[in-house]
């Protein structure tokens, strides 16, 4: 499963084996061996592969069918906008949120999206 998903995502992202190898810090031959299932990536490389392919290790391992790591992409986008640690990514802060507050937050984000589409 891992080898198929690495190959499939690499091609989908229009990366050569050499390009992926450079992002992960291995040789193109190592990537080729992973894709042909001659060898398997170790844990550290699996994490690097997931990052390079904008996915999760869970997806690569077949534990999830979600190909995108949307949260990481959102965090990276916010970081480029100057937000290093937005409060809505504070896991501890979310544990105390009540259902009615979630509805208010959802409505607020919808409002913001509407405002963005108007301007």
Average pLDDT, to the nearest integer? 84
- Tally of structural domains: 2
CATH topology of the largest domain: 434 Repressor (Amino-terminal Domain)
**Major sheet summary line:** none
- The CATH class of the largest domain, by name, is Mainly Alpha
Q: What order do the SSEs take from the amino end to the carboxyl end, as H and E?
A: HHHHHHHH
CATH homolog superfamily of the largest domain:
lambda repressor-like DNA-binding domains
Total strand segments = 0
Q: Which structural category do the helix and sheet elements fall into?
A: mainly alpha
State Rg: 19 Å
Secondary structure: helix percent: 55-70%
Oligomer: single chain
Low-confidence stretches: none
Inertia-based shape: elongated
Number of helices in the DSSP assignment:
8
CATH architecture of the largest domain: Orthogonal Bundle
N-end to C-end Cα span: 45 Å
Task: List the SSEs and their pairings.
Elements: H1 2-12, H2 17-24, H3 28-35, H4 43-52, H5 57-61, H6 70-80, H7 91-94, H8 99-118
Helix pairs in contact: 2-3
């Amino acid at each position: 499963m891992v080898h198929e998903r690495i190959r499939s995502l690499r091609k989908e992202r229009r990366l050569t084996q050499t390009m992926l190898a450079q992002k992960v810090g291995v040789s193109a031959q190592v990537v080729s061996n992973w894709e042909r299932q001659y060898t398997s990536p170790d844990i550290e490389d699996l994490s690097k592969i997931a990052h390079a392919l904008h996915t999760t290790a869970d997806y690569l391992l077949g534990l999830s069918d979600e190909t995108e790591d949307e949260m990481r992409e959102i965090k990276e986008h916010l970081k480029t906008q100057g937000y290093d640690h937005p409060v809505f990514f504070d896991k501890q802060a979310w544990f105390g949120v009540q259902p009615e507050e979630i509805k208010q937050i959802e409505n607020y984000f919808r409002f913001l999206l509407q405002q963005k589409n108007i301007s």
